[in-house]
Design brief:
- This protein is an all-beta fold.
- Helix content is 0%, strand content 54%.
- The strands form four sheets. It has a four-stranded antiparallel beta sheet with strand order 1-2-3-4, with no helix packed on it. It has a four-stranded antiparallel beta sheet with strand order 5-6-7-8, with no helix packed on it. A four-stranded antiparallel beta sheet has the order 9-10-11-12, with no helix packed on it.
């Protein structure tokens, strides 16, 4: 690890007070895109930004990927993936009606421009994911299935991790009725939160990385089996 940050708050208004939630995309093995949230404390405003560079040491801000505006206030937590039909999809969390919702945008290219196509994967009434939603990683596994992991919570902000199967165009074909991962019972004062961060495909296994109670990072191994 470098001694200093790869991306730090800048002199512009977009990210002068904070940078967080990085999502890295390697394009053609010789160029990197990093989507991240920039924060302006004066305006109490977050925007989804992206930086580009030949390596992690040469990243520079390129602009706003998803701006903050009604109804997509304070977009963050980007997930970017190429679907089976060739299009690129960007999923993001945003604030609306005092809830965290999940939005979806499409582009022909990994660096945009992005066209937002409304709310995606809405909350389910009387379910573990009935109130807040936030996207997690998308990958196509060794069985050629496209899966998205996501974070959902009830009205008490008890966040757990679920999954959804996607078709070639990114539409949901199946969704978990119960959480895939819930946090173990913690110490007094620990929050009831498990939050997915990233996933990688290793042979016939999915290695899923997630946090517990905003304190510790863990890895779950999901073994893929032919049906």
């Amino acid at each position: 690890m470098n001694d200093g940050p790869t991306i730090a708050p800048g002199t512009n208004s977009y990210d002068k007070d904070g940078c967080e939630d990085p999502t890295v995309i390697c394009v053609n093995n010789n160029n990197y895109l990093v989507y991240y949230t920039g924060w302006n404390q004066t305006k109490l405003e977050g925007q989804l930004l992206f930086a580009e560079g030949k390596n992690m040491e040469t990243l520079s801000l390129k602009g706003i990927a998803i701006p903050s505006h009604e109804p997509y206030i304070n977009p963050k937590e980007a997930t970017v993936a190429q679907l089976k039909d060739g299009k690129w999809v960007l999923l993001f969390e945003y604030s609306n009606e005092s809830r965290s919702k999940l939005g979806r945008a499409f582009s022909e290219n990994p660096d945009g421009p992005w066209k937002i196509e409304g709310e995606y994967l809405p909350a389910v009434v009387n379910s573990w994911d009935s109130y807040h939603l936030s996207p997690g990683p998308i990958l196509t596994d060794s069985l050629n299935q496209t899966v998205m992991f996501y974070n959902g919570s009830d009205e008490n902000a008890h966040w757990h991790i679920g999954w959804a199967n996607l078709d070639a165009r990114g539409n949901v074909t199946k969704r978990s009725k119960s959480p895939l991962i819930t946090p173990p019972k913690g110490k007094d004062g620990d929050s009831d939160i498990s939050f997915v961060a990233s996933a990688v495909l290793v042979g016939k296994e999915i290695w899923l990385y997630y946090s517990i109670s905003d304190k510790s990072t863990h890895r779950a191994i999901i073994t893929l089996e032919e049906q």
